[in-house]
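Format notes (please read before filing issues)

Several people have asked whether sequences and structure tokens are stored in separate files. They are not. Every record keeps both together, in the order shown below: the sequence lines, then the token lines. Line labels are part of the format and must not be stripped during preprocessing.
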Amino acid sequence: MPDESGEHAAAETAWARRFLHALQPHHAGSVYVNFLDSDDGTSRVREAYGERIYRRLAEIKAKYDPDNTFRHNKNIHPG
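Then the structure lines:
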């Protein structure tokens, strides 16, 4: 907010950075899956999930959606 002090803003920024740092061990890649663009290729989808998780999701997709019926979003292809 415009009327807040620089000290308050600095405290909020520090909190956000600590929170982001605490999340680091729990993310697979540098891409957020919900922010993939329509022209992003498969490599960006793999990067979003990380290779291990992507392979597992592809196995599940092959079992439950082998014909790739659910393909209208950024897709994991059946593996």
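For reference, the curators noted about this record: Residues 43 and 51 are 10 Å apart (CA to CA). The chain has a mean pLDDT of 84.
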